[in-house]
Structure formats: structure tokens, C-alpha cells
Amino acid sequence: MKALAELYAQQFKTTLAMMFQYRASLVIWMIGQVLEPLVYLIVWSVVSVSSGGSVGGYTTGDFAAYFIVLMLVNQFTYTWIMHEFEYRVREGNLSFALLKPVHPIHSDIADNVSSKLITLPIMILIAAGLALAFHASLSPTLWAVALFIPALLLAFIVRFLLEWTLALAAFWTTRVSAINQSYFLLMLFLSGQMAPLTLLPYPVQVVAGTLPFRWMIGFPVELLLGRLSLAEALQGLGIQAVWVLAGFVLLRIVWRAGVKVYSAVGA
Amino acid sequence: METRKRAVDGKQKATSPAIHIKDLRKVYIVSRQEAGTRAALQGLVQRRRLEIPAVDGISFDLAPGEIVGFLGPNGAGKTTTLKMLSGLLHPTAGEVTVLGYIPWKRERAFLRQITLVMGQRNQLVWDIPALHSFELNRAIYRIPQEDYRRILDELTELLELGPLLNKPVRNLSLGERMKCEIAAALLHRPSVVFLDEPTIGLDVTMQRRIRAFISEYNRRFGATVLLTSHYMADVEALCRRVVVIHHGRLLFDGDLSRLVQKFTAHKTIIVQLGDSRADLRSYGEVVSYADGRFTLRVPKAKTARVTERLLADLPVIDLLVEDPPIEEVIERVFAQENP
User: Fold this and answer.
1) Are residues B244 and B312 in the same domain?
2) Which terminus of chain A has a lower count of CB atoms within 10 Å, N or C?
3) Domain, as residue range, for B292
4) In this structure, are B127 and B186 located in the same domain?
5) Partners of residue B127 in chain A, C-beta under 8 Å
6) Angle at CA A16, nearest 5°, toward B172 and A20?
7) How many domains does chain B have?
């Protein structure tokens, strides 16, 4: 445990050094992270204003709050593993990782957590600025704030486990970008990134809730916005916990199978 | 194929081998696709599977502390064998143990004691100084701080890393990067070291430095080293014993000098004559000639007689009998197998 903590601390330093090297691309990437929800915010504000100040229970101020909180949740749960794994397998870096006496997932966890710790303060400042500019109306109850924190953490874990598992597709195919594209499209639609899920047709809502997507982004946002009852919130946390468990089991199975393929066909 | 009783000294005889391979095979299954649209469409429905034996039943042992050169042309199966030894590849058949472990299980205790350096791949993080990657490896291998300091100092001195450690890896030259790669791979002081083309693409000075370092590492820590290289100078300088494979099969396993004896039917005689117009064609094949200096190729059995005649018949200033260069020998070994 202590050794693992040491590894995480070291990875934090490495990630910091890397981000420092990539300052320019980091800024560009963060602009992207801000712009996407901002576009939806503006579109929905316009829609809301033109239909008399509210759509489907969301006022213009609610939309602003929704997309600003979403921006933060997305930032907190985002990973880039799916883009990286293909490269790792192709370039043979994975071989080095497999020869280390520690599971390669640890450096990914550490890397992701580190970069979040570094970028999150900036994102919170941006979010605060946007909230003022767009008159976001956010007045969460105390319990909603309290439950938002575990919901956010669980959302990150679910998303991390799922994306790490999907990234392992690189073991079977060298063209994972098709899988990534479909995943991100589903994500956009079903996680609440494009619009609050309650505004979508009912069948879509059911699909979004059955699949893990809502639990990776939409759920914590709805929770903080006060859209859920206490019972719904607790139930949501339970579903997230189930997804964590399922994701963990799935990851182990796929990882083992993937490594088996990798060591059969050559690295 | 040659089986060989290893000549080990008394001390090592009792110990079990550090590396043991017996009848090792690795068959890759690849799907083949012919050129052309029709073949491509066919490929969508039904792929033709092809079995390619990369390693086809090889056996050898390495005693602890031994440095062995692992030779063979491109595609001979060297890298595949090294990957099976380090645990990256699962063998199709046969036995393989390293330090008593079965490599593909990749047990932590095993991984902590080995390393694999691939001259064409790199493990260092590209955009930041190598020191960060070293520190990461320290944490990964759980090297205690004080040991780490000492080992790093040692490696820094032996490989002259001083000015390189704080430069981003991408700004290092190929040779500088390779030195850092090697250092990163040896921080946990592995007792078994697999080196796949560690000097590829490096200039002669850098090759020599890395060679000297490998030799020193082996001497200091008694590490077992299996090394592949295309540069025979590496092998000559480091390895008394060589294992030669071709098309996945073992061609030779023994002393380098015996390889030369076994596969060369000729010797080279270099004579410096006072008379530069002499015709030496009757003594042997004249390979080159310049300023009274003749290089002759003569059958091994005739060497003594030809030398005698040269000395008796001609105004010889200097005479040298040599084995052909090792590159040439190796070339011939592969050529024999590949008519």
C-alpha cells in the first residue's frame, strides 16, 4: 500500500512535468472542454428564451447551471485512455508496461487523477465566471451537495473502468478509432452532454439509464441541480455502485483475455 | 544441429542454469491476403490462415553469470525467443524457465529480477527528462532511496549520464537516449538481462562504450546476459560463447572461435613483398593487391605449405596468417543454410 502510494506520488510529479511540457496544447484542450458545453448552453438558452423562458421544466438560468455543472463533471470524469491504448499497443510501449512488476492500470489511474488535480482549479474558476455571465440559477439543498461528492467520484470510477476496458479493444484490432467514434457519439447523446436527459424521448431516457452513460455524467449533474428526490438520488448511487462492480469484473476478464491474445500474436 | 556439453568451470557446475530452453517453439498464425480487390473481398468472408514457425524447436542453457551472443539474420527468431524468455510471448510448445520461473506467468518476483532492452523501442517518457522515468522505475520496483541513489550514481559514472539526465529525452541523440534506456532498465539491478540490438544505429565510439558497460555490469554483478546484435564487434568483444539460429532453428552453440573453425575452410594470408610485380596466383586466390601487399585466400589445410613456399620463393618482408573476419564467417554460415 505504501509502495503504491509512492508510485502514485511519483506519477503525479511525472504528469505535472509532462503537462508543463505541453502547456500550449493543454490550454487548447481546456478551451475545447469549455467550448463544447458552452455551445449547447447557448443553443438551449436561445431555445428557452424563444419559447417563453423555459423548456421541459428548465428555465434559461437552469440551462446555464446544467451545462456549467456538466462541464465540471465532464472534466472530472474525462479520460484519454481510449486514444492512447492503440498507440501503446502499436508502438510496443505496452510490452515495457507488461514487464513491470505492477499492473499498468495504476499509472493510468495516477496519471488521470494527477491531471485532474492540476486542471480542476482552473476549470472551477472558468465555471464561476460563466455562471455569473449566464445568470445560472443554482441553489442546491445541503443533502444534494453532500451526495454530489460520492456521485461524482463514482461517476469517475465507472467511466474510468469502462473506458479502460473499451480501450483494450486495441488488443484485438489495430483500428480502434471506429469504436471510439461510436462510443463518443453514444456518450454525447445518452449521458446528458447534449441535452438534459429528461428532455429526450422517454425510450431514449430508459436506454440511457439502463446503459452506464447516465451514471457517468448526467446523474451527478441532475443531482446537484436539485432535479432528483432523495430516494432517486440514493437509488442512483446504488446503481453507480453496481456499475463500478460490473466494470471492475468486466475489466479483469477483458484484460486477461487481451493479454492472452497479445502474448499469442506477438508484441 | 549441434548438441554441446557445456564446458563450465567447477564452481558453476553444481548450480542450475539461469536460463533453460528446451525444444522451444513459437508458431504465429497470420491471416494472409492476396493483392487485388477480389482477394480483398474474399478476405472479408474467409481468411486464409497461415502458420509461420518463428522459433522451431531450439534448446540451450545459460549458466548464471554467462554472457552469450545470440546471432541470426533478420527474421531468424531472435526477438521472438527473447520475448518468450522475458514473458511477453507465450510459447507454442517446449520448455522455458528463467531463474526457475516460467516467464509468461510474469510473476512479480520474476519481473523484478529481469530486464529487456530493445534497441528499437523505448520505455523512457519522451517529452520529459530521463530522470523522471528513472524515478518512476524506482517507485515501480520499490527500490529503497539509498540503494537508488547509489545505483544511479554508479550508472551515471559508468555510462557518463551526468549532463543527460535533466534534458528532455526527445532532445537527446540516439546514442545518449540508448544510454539512458539502458540505465532505466538496470536500476533495479536485474540478474538476468536480455539485450535486443542495444547498439543498433549507434556510432562506433558509442557502441564501444555500451559494450564496455555491459561487460562491466556482468563482471560486477554476475548478471546473466543474452545479447543479440548485428555488429559482430559487439559479440567478439563480449561473448565467448555464441548461439546461432536461422529460420527458427539452432545452427551452432559453442565458442566463438570454434564457430570460425567450423565454418571456414579458408585462411587469409597477407604478405608484404619487396618485389611488387610478383605473380602470386599460383599460391592461392589473390583477393586484393596494393603496393606490394597481397591478400591471399587459401584452403585451411594448405596454409602451412603455402606459407612455407612463399617464404622460400619470394623476398617476403612481412607475412600474416589470419582467420577471415567474423562477419564473413557468419555470412557463410547463413549462406550454407540458404542455398
Assistant:
1) no
2) N
3) 265-322
4) yes
5) 18, 21-22
6) 60
7) 2
* Whether B309 and B226 share a structural domain: no
Q: Are residues B216 and B117 part of one domain?
A: yes
Asked whether residue B144 falls in the same domain as residue B286, the answer is: no
Q: To probe the interface with A, which of B132, B141, B189 has the most A CB atoms within 10 Å?
A: B132
Domain contains B42: no
Q: What is the CATH number of the domain that holds B308?
A: 3.30.70.980
State the smallest CA–CA distance between residue A238 and chain B in angstroms: 35
- Taking CA–CA distances from B129, the nearest residue in chain A reads A17
Last residue of a domain, one of B261, B288, B312: B261
Domain residue limits, chain A: 2-265
The reply to whether B269 and B257 lie within a common domain is no
User: Hey, is the C-beta of A256 within 8 angstroms of any chain B C-beta?
Assistant: no
The sign of the CA dihedral B159, B162, B165, B170 is negative
| Residue A57 DSSP symbol | T
> CA B193, CA B217: separation in Å to the nearest integer?
10
Asked if residue B298 is part of any domain, the answer here is yes
Specify burial of residue B157 (Cβ count, 10 A radius: 0-12, 13-18, 19+).
exposed
The answer, for B135 touching chain A at a CB cutoff of 8 Å, is yes
Residue numbers in A near B248 (CB within 8 A): none
Residue B275 and residue B251 share a domain: no
Closest to B269 (Cα-Cα) out of B238, B243, B304: B304
Reduce the DSSP state of residue B289 to 3 states and report it: strand
pLDDT in tens, chain A (267 residues): 788 899 999 999 999 999 888 888 888 988 999 999 999 999 999 999 999 989 999 999 999 999 999 999 999 999 989 988 888 888 888 999 999 999 999 999 999 999 999 899 999 999 999 999 999 999 899 999 999 999 999 999 999 999 999 999 998 887 788 899 999 999 999 999 999 999 999 999 999 999 999 999 999 999 999 999 999 999 999 999 999 999 999 999 999 999 999 888 765
Q: Please tell me which of the candidates B106, B129, B168 has its beta carbon nearest to residue A98.
A: B106
